[in-house]
Amino acid sequence: MGATGAWVVGALPDAAARDLARRYGRPVRPLDGYPPREVRLALAWWHNGGGEETFFARPAGPSGPLEPTPAAYRFADLVEAAHASSDSADADAMQDASTAVMPETIGAGLFVATARKANPVAALFHGLGPRRSALLPGWFGHVLLSADEVRAALPRYEEALLLPDGERAAVLSGITDWMTAMGDAPDADAAELVDGPLRVVRHAAATGSGVAAFSNWY
Fold it and tell me: Which pLDDT score is estimated for 35?
């Protein structure tokens, strides 16, 4: 594992998205289509109360540093194990091929989040919590969608990421806590981590494009 976590969400031509799905069989989920037992158990914990546990505390007092609890480490392990369960040469090839046909610069069709020592997907999912994060298509931030699938998935993205003001503040705070205590990125743009992926999906839906997304360490 490298020192910088990265998450890329990009639009790509519909024909390319369909071709990648045919060539690589959508290698963005567990290799056998069924998560390993350790991932299933951790998912059950996350969706059945684990997401409501305390993930960070200040044991030294209100002015002390924010420190992860066992729940935070358990969720971090879940995200890494989920990503590892879909790791393969085909997955790597699909990521390389999709990157080659994404826009070259960050903007409406490309979102990139990076964080020193922190996984942006884990930070977002922690901030959103189990219910909202479960609305996001794919497998813990990994996804490959054709244009038709993008249009069908857009309402789910909007339900997950369009947040009422009060809830948005709590989500952004949760993201910042993760970036600070689990990584070394206290200045990471929490708002962009929520808004960026939705911007790309909306752009893809409006232009008849597909979407690919993946997370890596560098």
Answer: 76
CA distances from 120 to 21, 53, 57, 193 (A): 25, 20, 20, 8
Rounded Cα distance, 8 and 24, in Å? 19
- Prediction pTM value: 0.93
> How far from chain centre, in Å, is Cα 178?
13
Say whether 146 sits in a helix, a strand or coil. coil
Helix or strand holding residue 218 (H, E): none
Per-residue tokens: 19: 């071709």
pLDDT tens for residues 159-195?
999 999 889 999 999 999 999 999 999 999 999 999 9
Nearest Cα neighbor of 136 from 115, 120, 114, 158 is 158
Phi/psi of residue 27, nearest 5 degrees: -75, 55
Q: How far apart are CA 125 and CA 138, in angstroms?
A: 13
Is the Cβ–Cβ distance between 199 and 111 less than 8 Å? yes
